[in-house]
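Narrative summary of target 7.
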Amino acid sequence: MSLFPLFVLLLPLLEIAGFVIVGREVGALATVGLVILSTIAGSLLLRHQGFEVMARVRAEMDAGRDPSRQLAHGAMIVLAAILLIIPGFITDIIAILLLLPPVRDLAWRLLKSRIVMATSFSSGFSARRRDKVIDLDDSDYSRDDYERGPDHNSPWRRLKDD
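Modeled conformation, tokenized:
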């Protein structure tokens, strides 16, 4: 049985206890300031990471490598940003841990066997996609063809039969 659902149910209570403990040590105003600061940091991180993750994934695909590790690291960084936005110190600690590359590598090693890829990325990836391209000339299509109905000799029909 997984302890994750129990953790999610207890998290608000743990966060409240965290606010009380931190508030007692540094004061109420500093506690609120820390929460606001972590929310701003998480928002900035979330905004910045979206573009950077897509650039890294595109670079991996262009090089013919599997982008799954980059996607997983990007997803963990986005999760860290969301955890920073959520008010609370326990979520902030988890977020800070997820921002550390060794922790993300460990999480990826533990989780990659549970993740199923919908498609495989290999060196033949682009070659397989090119086989299905149908190049039409101007004479192959016109408005009149559309109004007459489907042409059973069309190259599009041959693609479905493959």
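Residues 11-123 form one domain.
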